[in-house]
Amino acid sequence: CILKYEREINRRTELPLVSHLISHHSNSEFIRNAHNTEFSFVSVFIFIPEDCRYFHFSFYYISTEKKSWSESRKFCTERGADLVIINSREEQEFISKAFGSSEAWIGLTDTEKEGVWKWVDNSTLTTNSALNVGFWKSGEPNSNVGDEDCVATGEGSDPVGNWADYPCNHQFVWVCEKRVFD
């Protein structure tokens, strides 16, 4: 799987930072415009050797190691992606099938305000929208052990209704998503 990040950068202020970040990814290739102007167009290709899947105009990286929610998100964003935002029943079923019965972090949290669930793109999970009702396991979310502000999919055997809230420092595998048309 190859994730590609492109944008125009200021050569004076941003190029040193971008070069530094890329040099820390041994599986990365850094390509930049050689024009002697203030701005350059930068393309970064990040090659992910692990499992990567494609579904409805998104690439999904399926991790094999376990991290906290914030560490998982950092892993995704450093590669030009983010934790998955589940937009449909079909996508939920796809993610469940990819993981089987393993719990995995998704990009949903209520860390800003208890009970107000937001995706990593800052959109709100609502209960009155046909496409955005959530796929909670029965009895979830429940903040069962107190501070459960992050969401994992894969809780239980139901391939659709299997989201549960957990403490964000809990260690799970995760799903990164990179939309093709971002």
From TrEMBL:
Name under which the protein is recorded: C-type lectin domain-containing protein
GO MF terms held by the record: carbohydrate binding
Sequence ranges assigned to domain C-type lectin in this UniProt record: 55-177
One matching Pfam family: Lectin_C
Keyword field contains Disulfide bond: yes
Keywords (A to Z) from UniProt: Disulfide bond, Lectin
SUPFAM superfamilies reported in the protein's UniProt record: C-type lectin-like
Membrane-spanning intervals of the chain: none
Record has Phosphoprotein as a keyword: no
CDD domains xref list: CLECT_DC-SIGN_like (cd03590)
InterPro entries: C-type_lectin-like (IPR001304), C-type_lectin-like/link_sf (IPR016186), C-type_lectin/snaclec_domain (IPR050111), C-type_lectin_CS (IPR018378), CD209-like_CTLD (IPR033989), CTDL_fold (IPR016187)
